[in-house]
Each structure stands twice: as structure tokens, then as C-alpha cells.
Design brief:
Blueprint: H1 2-17, E1 21-23, E2 35-37, H2 39-58, E3 63-66, H3 75-80, H4 82-85, E4 87-92, E5 99-101, H5 102-128, H6 134-140, H7 142-163, H8 167-176, E6 193-196, E7 199-203, E8 211-215, H9 220-224, H10 227-233, E9 240-249, E10 264-274, H11 279-295, E11 304-308, E12 318-326, E13 329-340, H12 342-351, E14 357-359, E15 364-366, E16 369-376, H13 377-388, E17 389-393, E18 399-403, E19 414-418, H14 425-436, E20 442-444, H15 450-460, E21 464-468, H16 470-475, E22 477-482, E23 488-492, H17 496-504, H18 506-510
Parallel strand pairs: 3-9, 19-20, 19-21
Antiparallel strand pairs: 1-2, 4-5, 4-6, 7-8, 9-10, 10-16, 11-12, 12-13, 13-16, 14-15, 17-18, 21-22, 22-23
Helix pairs in contact: 2-13, 5-7, 5-8, 6-7, 7-8
């Protein structure tokens, strides 16, 4: 646990030092759980967006994108259930005065039981080797069976209590499990109460006539209210999807863990409209498709797992999370939900407008069912950053800090480095920059010794370094150094654009992961 905490601290420190993330309004001591993206962070964030957007809208002929407004008619949030039901269970510790989400305290306790079971399984796997039957071991080993059984029982009880809004039982569960304040160890808890997460605002010239609005807590509703607009103007046929990237706002009870949980954040969502009765088939297909998208970035198969929801949202008949192994453990990265026809029917009821599709094959009108894929952009950013940061021990006994970002996402694709600041080398290097900058984000760097510049670019996440030396003036060749392997090879300057494209191109990374 201490090692994970140290890693997380290193990620946060590195993010600031190399221009990825700053505390918002830092000169005024900042604002809780709000962050600014620096010069490298903005580029990485935009590259993640583009990678997602192109994989959704460019690779699927039946998915289009929109950009809906943040401010929406307030009845939108009545219809969606957010006004009445967008709550988290809040609990305070009387001694530490710290505030927590009660469900997260219980889920973290359950996660520890799973980790204990997995530790036992890992030891047995090592002991028995190829003959090891993991499923049988789970069923027959008393300790593992007890850990997994307790975990299942706890999560099922939590889900039931939350569904029935039995907050007294949630507190009783916390007390029975002897869950303590993570920071102080105190078990002196208040009652559990509901807390609405929406930010309110006003629209109007005066306080008396102002209309109550909300900053949207999710981007999905902007898609649902535009369902007919997109379907008719795009002449879309079921099944089809609408994608969107945009800001959302939630007054989180506990906004901690850096950019993992913030009050202002960005979502990448796609709502896929299907025939009623076919939703669960499409739900399974989108689970596989979205996991493949994550795998394409090469962050490690072992860092992902599916978590099926015990407690379903009021609109869903199936739901799962793709969880990622962050420095603080496995947590939700992306949600895939079968939302049924709840949203469109609710907006029909509250608006009085029909939101239906005429299916020429079935010769009937119906309200489509919806499969949602929803990923937090900021969480994706943190997953990429934390999985990429490495402290490597090299063969010569030295070490280096390297940010092994997927090259397709890296803010700067290549750094152009003159070996020395004289003899015409800077001029040639600048000419290479001027040629490459039309197609790639490249950077010129002449300060310090070449080895130090390599290390600086490694830590910033730049995949390629291109060194111009005295031989370059004679043969127009340069040395290309690859960040991850530190391999170097000689390349003619006319081949540079093709080499960078091969290393960083969307198709190179995504092609093997498309259905």
C-alpha cells in the first residue's frame, strides 16, 4: 500500500513538473478538486479525445457526433430523474470531521476481501504451477471461499439497502464491518443521509424573475433530447449511435485522488439506439468493443477487469464497469449500461413530443432501447499517465525516469536536437522542424548536453528524438533514438515523416483492435 501511495505521489509531482496538470487558481491557494491542464496536459487530453472520437465516429458508419449545450431546460433533469434521485449516501466521522461516501467505504472494505482472496490464489498458482485449477480452488479452499463469500454478501446487502433507500441499514453495515475512518481510525460515525450532486445556477436579469437552471451532471441527456433531430437530418436507421465529448459538473461529497474525482470534469459518451429485445446482445458486443479500444493503447492487459453492477440504476437492466488498476487500486474507468427505453420515454412524457422511430422492416413505430458507453476523460488521462510513468534501472547501473505514453497520444511526437549549438547544426535542425511541423507536433531543443536532453524528453513522454550531427551536413542523415528501447538508428531526413507516422499514426495503433 505504501508503495502505491508513493507511486501516486510521484505521478502527481511529475504531472506538475512537466506541464501536464496544475492546481486551478494556484496563486490564490487553489480550489478543492478543480485542476487546470498545462501545455503538455492539454495536448495529451486532446489526443485522447481524438483517439476516442475517431474510433467512434470514423470507424463506425452508423455513429455520428454532436456537441450539445451545457445549460439545458430544467425539465430535462426532472425527466431524467436527476432532480429527485441524483444522490449519494453521505456519512461524516464525528471525531475527524471528515466526510465520506458511505457506499464507497463499504465497497473499499469488500475490495480488501477480494485482494486477500487473490493473494491466496496467487500463492497457490505459484505452488501448483500448470496443474492449478483456479475455479476449483475458489470453490474448495476454505479461506478463499470465505473471503469471496463475505464480499458477495456485503455487496448484495449494500445494493439492496441503496435500492430500497434504507440508509439506516447502510450505517448498520458500516458498524457491523467495523469500518474505520481511513485517515484516523475512528469508528464514530453520523447517520447516513442523501446528498444531491447537482450544481444550481440562475438564468435571468433579476433575482425575482430568474429561472432555476442546473449545470449538467452528465452529457447523455443532450444526446437524448436531440435524438429525433439527428435521426431525421442524418437519415439514420436503427441501430445507430450518437457520440459526444463535453463538460459535466457534480458537487461531489468526496472529491479526492487528484483528477480521478472532480467537480468539473469531461465525459466521452456514446448512446447506441437499438430495437427493443436486442439490447442485451448489443450490450455484450459493446463491452467487448470498448475493452478492445483500451487494449489498443498497450497499457497492460492485467490493468483491466470488468465489474458487473450489483445495484442497477433506475434506468438500467444491465450494467458493467471497465475498471483500471490505478495507483490506489482498481476503480471505474468506463461504464457500459443497457439503459432500456427509460430516457426517451421520460422525455416523451415530460415534453409531450413523440421520440419514436419508424422501422420499415418491422412496419411499426417504437421507442428504441439504448446502450450507453461512458468514459471519464480525466480518469482516462490519469490511467494513461500513471501506467506510463516508469523508474527504470539501466544495464550500466544508472536509472532514468521515463513517461512511456502511447506514441499516438504523446503531446510531442519528436524532438529535434542539434548535437552542438554551432557549425550550422541548429540551422539544419530548424529546417527539419519547419518541414515536420505541418504534420506532427515537434519540438526544437538545443540546451544542455545531448544525454541530458534525451533524459528530459524521456520524462516528458516524447517517443522519438532526432539528433543532427556533423555527418548530417554531409549525408543528410540523422540519428533517431526511440524512447522506450533507447535504440538508435541512422535515417535519411527524407524518411523522417514516414517513420514518425508509422510510430504515432491512429491506424497503426487501432487497426488490430477493430471488429
Amino acid at each position: 500500500m505504501a508503495k502505491q501511495e508513493d507511486l501516486f505521489k510521484n505521478v502527481i509531482s511529475h504531472a506538475k513538473e512537466y506541464g501536464y496538470i496544475f492546481a486551478s487558481s494556484e496563486i490564490y491557494d487553489g480550489i478543492s478538486a478543480v485542476y487546470d491542464y498545462g501545455q503538455n496536459g492539454a495536448e495529451l487530453k486532446n489526443n485522447i479525445k481524438e483517439y476516442w472520437w475517431r474510433s467512434m465516429t470514423q470507424l463506425h458508419q452508423n455513429i455520428v457526433g454532436i456537441d450539445a449545450a451545457i445549460l439545458m431546460h430544467p425539465t430535462t433533469w426532472k425527466a431524467s430523474g436527476h432532480v429527485d434521485a441524483f444522490n449519494d449516501p453521505l456519512i461524516d466521522n464525528k471525531d475527524s470531521k471528515k466526510r465520506y461516501r458511505a457506499d464507497v467505504l463499504v465497497e473499499d472494505h469488500a475490495e480488501k476481501l477480494l485482494q486477500k482472496a487473490e493473494k491466496e490464489i496467487a500463492k497457490a498458482k505459484k505452488r501448483f504451477g500448470d496443474d492449478f485449477d483456479e475455479e476449483m480452488y475458489k470453490e474448495t479452499n476454505p479461506r478463499v471461499k470465505r473471503y469471496l463469500g463475505e464480499r458477495k454478501e456485503i455487496l448484495e446487502r449494500l445494493a439492496k439497502s441503496l435500492t430500497e433507500e434504507n440508509l439506516a441499514d447502510v450505517k448498520a453495515l458500516i458498524e457491523e464491518l467495523e469500518i474505520a475512518d481511513p485517515e484516523t481510525g475512528s469508528k464514530n460515525w453520523t447517520e447516513v443521509r442523501q446528498f444531491n450532486l447537482m450544481f444550481g445556477t440562475k438564468l435571468g436579469a433579476s433575482a425575482e424573475s430568474a429561472q432555476q437552471l442546473y449545470l449538467r451532471p452528465e452529457t447523455a441527456q443532450g444526446i437524448f433530447v436531440n435524438f429525433l433531430n439527428v435521426q431525421k437530418t442524418g437519415r439514420m436507421k436503427i441501430p445507430f449511435g450518437i457520440a459526444q465529448i463535453g463538460k459535466a459538473f457534480r458537487n461531489e461529497i468526496v472529491a479526492r485522488q487528484f483528477i480521478f474525482r472532480m467537480r468539473e470534469f469531461e465525459q466521452m459518451e456514446m448512446q447506441f439506439f437499438v430495437r427493443p429485445g436486442q439490447e442485451l446482445e448489443w450490450y455484450e458486443k459493446w463491452k467487448e468493443t470498448r475493452l478492445n479500444w483500451h487494449r489498443s493503447l498497450g497499457l497492460g492487459e492485467e490493468n483491466y477487469r470488468f465489474h458487473d453492477h450489483e445495484k442497477l440504476a433506475h434506468y438500467a437492466n444491465a450494467a458493467a464497469d471497465i475498471e483500471f488498476d490505478f495507483p490506489f487500486g482498481f476503480k471505474e474507468l468506463e461504464g457500459i449500461h443497457s439503459r432500456t427505453d427509460f430516457d426517451l420515454k421520460a422525455h416523451e412524457e415530460h415534453s409531450g413530443k413523440k421520440l419514436r422511430f419508424y422501422d420499415p422492416e418491422m412496419k411499426e413505430n417504437y421507442v428504441p432501447y439504448v446502450i450507453e458507453t461512458s468514459i471519464g476523460l480525466d480518469r482516462m488521462f490519469l490511467a494513461v499517465l500513471s501506467a506510463s510513468l516508469k523508474d527504470e534501472q539501466l544495464e550500466d547501473g544508472s536509472s532514468r525516469i521515463v513517461l512511456k505514453l502511447p506514441a499516438v497520444l504523446a503531446p510531442t511526437k519528436a524532438a529535434i536536437l542539434p548535437l552542438v549549438k554551432k557549425d550550422g547544426l541548429p540551422e539544419m535542425a530548424q529546417k527539419i522542424v519547419d518541414d515536420l511541423k505541418w504534420d506532427f507536433r515537434v519540438q526544437y531543443d538545443e540546451k544542455d548536453a545531448i544525454g541530458r536532453r534525451y533524459r528530459r524528453q524521456d520524462a516528458a513522454g516524447t517517443p522519438l528524438c532526432i539528433t543532427v550531427d556533423h555527418d548530417s551536413l554531409e549525408d543528410e542523415s540523422v540519428t533517431v533514438r526511440f524512447r522506450d528501447s533507447m535504440e538508435q538508428k541512422r535515417v535519411h531526413i527524407n524518411e523522417l515523416a514516414g517513420l514518425i507516422k508509422k510510430e504515432t499514426d491512429f491506424r497503426t495503433w487501432m487497426e488490430g483492435y477493430v471488429d
